[in-house]
Design a protein that fits this description.
CATH superfamily: dinb family like domain
Helix content: 40-55%
CATH architecture: Up-down Bundle
Order of helices and strands: HHHHHH
Number of strands: 0
Length: 189
């Protein structure tokens, strides 16, 4: 069984996994477009995202303050396996019903948070490590924009997103989404 959320995650996840798998150990201390995060920090955050959002799909509470170093032996393969579990967790239609007890948001919105984190942080990591950035799937971009329409201002007030970066009307859809989340699409290390 699948849901729209799991289908979108199944499209976005392999792209982020491919970026993660190409990151070398000597790149872990590089800066990222997320000014508070090195590549190592961002990888640990994205690892937390894929693990914690599995629990959120099952309406379990998570501890975002736990700062686990996931980058131990075999971390690239474990990340890939955890993204598969993330997609599976959101494939149950019950995962999208009701309100998240831990987040106080509709479960569907929580699933969209996982999607935007995976897609945008995949771009962050690719850009930080000099990898080519693959254009995101149009359906993922559409879901990301819809999420930002609903939650962008709230996310910005809570510190999840930076101030939107001004863009022109002719920028690519991915660049427009990145700018809405406070990223400069032209960022380089």
């Amino acid at each position: 069984m699948t849901t729209k959320t799991s289908e979108l995650l199944a499209v976005a996840a392999p792209r982020t996994v491919a970026v993660v798998q190409r990151i070398s150990d000597d790149q872990l201390d590089l800066p990222t477009p997320c000014s508070d995060y090195s590549v190592r920090d961002l990888l640990n955050h994205v690892f937390d995202v894929v693990v914690n959002f599995q629990a959120l799909a099952q309406r379990q509470e998570v501890d975002w303050s736990a700062k686990t170093d996931h980058l131990t032996e075999g971390w690239r393969d474990r990340f890939a396996a955890e993204t598969v579990r993330l997609v599976e967790a959101w494939s149950d239609p019950a995962a999208l019903e009701g309100v998240s007890p831990g987040m106080g948001l509709p479960q569907e919105t929580v699933g969209d948070m996982a999607l935007i984190d995976l897609a945008v942080h995949g771009w962050d990591l690719a850009r930080a490590t000099g990898q080519p950035v693959v254009e995101a799937d149009p359906a993922v971009l559409a879901a990301g924009h819809a999420f930002m329409d609903r939650m962008g201002d709230t996310g910005q007030r809570m510190g999840a997103f930076g101030e939107p970066v001004p863009t022109t009307s002719d920028v690519a859809d991915l660049d427009r989404l990145l700018a809405r989340t406070g990223r400069d699409p032209a960022w380089t290390p």
